[in-house]
Amino acid sequence: MSRTPALAALVAIAAVALSACSSGTEIPVIAPQVPAAPVTELERPPGTIVSANSTATLGTVVVDGFGFTLYRFDGDSAQPPAATCAGPCTATWDPVLAADPITIEGLAEKAIGAVQRPDGQAQLTIGGWPVYRHEGDTPGATHGHGAEGKWFAIAPDGDKAAAPN
After folding, report:
1. Do 69 and 138 meet the contact criterion of CB atoms below 8 Å apart?
2. pLDDT tens-digit profile of 116-134?
3. Is residue 99 a contact partner of residue 46, using CB atoms and an 8 Å limit?
């Protein structure tokens, strides 16, 4: 009869436990392993998820898989794509990294790309524009839109989001 290593180990533990019970020896209790940190809602699934989301004030904007609005920065470039927000800038504007697989909903596949950041990481682009999350947002919020006159929620084609007509 063949046994898997896990089953063999279980049988051996049971045998030791039974012999310990008959001899009056105490068996040490082994506590279950508990993760060092709690699991949070914001743990990212593998890959990058982006989708189009309709808003009352800005029309259709792009959001990530958790509903956070994505932004473009006028200090960056779309032609050719270039990301310039680095260092202290990233304390407020979190670059959205491009990780495979990239799942898109409501955007043209040709609008999605990536650019190498100054730190060497690949950042997601939409319509050539590198995209970011605003530190002050919650899912569905657009608090970063218009910040410093240079940050704007991004539309599915890479343009600045604008109020619907």
Report:
1. no
2. 999 999 999 999 999 999 9
3. yes
HEC-encoded secondary structure of the chain: CCCCHHHHHHHHHHHHHHHHHHHCCCCCCCCCCCCCCCCCCCCCCCCEEEEEEEECCCEEEEEECCCCEEEEECCCEECCEECCCCHHHHHCEEECECCCCEEEECCCHHHEEEEECCCCCEEEEECCEECEEECCCCCCCCCCCCHHHCEEEECCCCCECCCCC
Taking the C-alpha atoms of residue 85 and residue 16, their distance in angstroms, rounded to an integer, is 61
pTM: 0.72
Give the whole-angstrom CA distance, residue 14 versus residue 66. Answer: 46
Q: What tokens appear for 15 in the block?
A: 């045998």
